[in-house]
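testing teh design pipeline on a random one, pls ignore if ur not involved
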């Protein structure tokens, strides 16, 4: 079975369109990323991918969604994450996260996503270039959404069957 860890950036960008206040270039890039993230979530559902997220992701989704759209949507989005994906308790991979942080110097937050992907032997899907870089340093298979077209992302899933 294909396993994936979804970074908060992918989940947020699948839900929310980019802000119009961005420069035209940034808006176009982020709109394209939004569409790829939406398609990726659909692909994950269609392919019956086993998705894992650390518990802290639920809190981050709630915080970001609250800032962007209000409390009601934040509660709905974060509850949807809990219902849709395997929520991993950080205690179960704390040592791996600590080792990743010591090895790469990445943020503590990023180390949890990378460690979970490492523990589950899963593809890490992110739109955070720093997290992607540190995941590669930690020998975790990572896909940076903005740098790949949808066909390349889909191929990564088909090559793991």
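output:
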């Amino acid at each position: 079975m294909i396993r994936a860890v979804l970074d908060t950036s992918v989940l947020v960008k699948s839900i929310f369109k980019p802000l119009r206040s961005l420069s035209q270039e940034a808006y176009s890039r982020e709109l394209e990323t939004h569409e790829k993230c939406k398609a990726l979530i659909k692909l994950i559902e269609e392919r019956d991918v086993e998705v894992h997220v650390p518990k802290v992701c639920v809190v981050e989704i709630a915080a970001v969604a609250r800032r962007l759209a209000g409390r009601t949507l934040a509660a709905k989005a974060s509850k949807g994450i809990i219902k849709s994906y395997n929520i991993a308790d950080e205690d179960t991979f704390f040592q791996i996260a600590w080792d990743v942080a010591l090895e790469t110097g990445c943020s503590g937050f990023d180390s949890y996503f990378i460690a979970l992907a490492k523990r589950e032997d899963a593809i890490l899907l992110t739109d955070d270039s720093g997290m992607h870089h540190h995941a590669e340093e930690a020998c975790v298979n990572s896909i940076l959404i903005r740098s790949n077209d949808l066909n390349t992302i889909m191929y990564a899933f088909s090559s793991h069957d």
